[in-house]
Design a protein that fits this description.
homodimer; DNA-binding; three-stranded antiparallel β-sheet; alpha+beta; Arc Repressor Mutant, subunit A; 5 helices
Chain lengths: ~150, ~150
DNA sequence: CATCTGACTTGACGTTGTCAAATCTAGGAG
DNA sequence: CTCCTAGATTTGACAACGTCAAGTCAGATG
């Protein structure tokens, strides 16, 4: 129920990083690559369930944590609430609609970290700057006017 | 158990915005002003409890939501997890330590919103750009070396 | 001081994330 | 190919965070 080439690619990428290509890892990473976009842990669990491949919730939590540490996936900073993960190959930021809460990727000017440094003195060494753009998406603006 | 002048100021600021100066609002907002920094709802509840002023958790949730809509306090974007609130008078960003998770304010270059606009085309109208700087604070760096 | 509307309170509940202990398996050694 | 073992998965229970609805209360106005 998951695209075979996505699973193959997932398996390869896992091994390239020295990670054991276990079933949950291949499935979760393959699914994230196949679907694209931003997904919560429980969303992934439900998606796998729907496709007839039940995976324990805890396993998905373990997988996303491991994959994130290896840099294969990233956690999208979108403010408080559930964590959203995405399989992404390059550094970017996010736009969040205040109405529908939809998250959209926004390219980073530099494309590498850190793309911004604090003005003046920071309280530590900065290695990454995540930007969250907030506003109202065009779809919601259209709905508001009707 | 809360600084009287903070409570007075809180009461005044609430009325200035046309908000009813109810007990929970004055207490929560006064406490946030007195303490400074970033605090979760449950942290505020515990703080009030410790000071002998029990306030229902739901009331604090209501208060922070109302105050945020009025612009008296802001919710600090610090990634997934619990929401952190702060009584702040000017727009700024945050530095989050990867080790101790401590949140520190970082001044905004412009000091007004939106201080950044997405490169190229955004999927909507941007009215605000929150930046989260991540890294390791100097205190944790010192601990790591010992 | 009376009134009324908005705010507070209460209790219960759904979701998200974490922990520890037992079981299993991917991948290398023989 | 088979065995072995460190590492990963699974299970169940639990804690933290946030939300909902219905009933009660009190701040602001006249």
């Amino acid at each position: 129920m998951i695209d075979q080439s996505s699973l193959e690619t997932a398996r390869k990428f896992l091994k390239d990083r020295g990670l054991r290509a276990t079933n949950p890892r291949v499935l979760v990473y393959g699914l994230l690559r196949e679907m694209g976009g931003h997904h919560s842990v429980d969303g992934l669990v439900a998606q796998l369930e729907n496709r007839g491949i039940p995976v324990p919730r805890m396993s998905v939590y373990n997988v996303v944590t491991d994959l994130q540490h290896s840099g294969l996936i990233m956690c999208a900073d979108c403010g408080p609430g559930r964590a959203l993960y995405e399989a992404s190959d390059e550094w970017h930021h996010h736009f969040v609609c205040r109405i529908c809460m939809e998250v959209t990727d926004v390219p980073c000017i530099l494309g590498r970290k850190p793309c911004l440094v604090p003005p003046g003195s920071a309280p530590g060494t900065v290695d990454e700057a995540q930007v969250i753009f907030r506003g109202v998406c065009y779809a919601c603006q259209a709905k508001l006017q009707s």
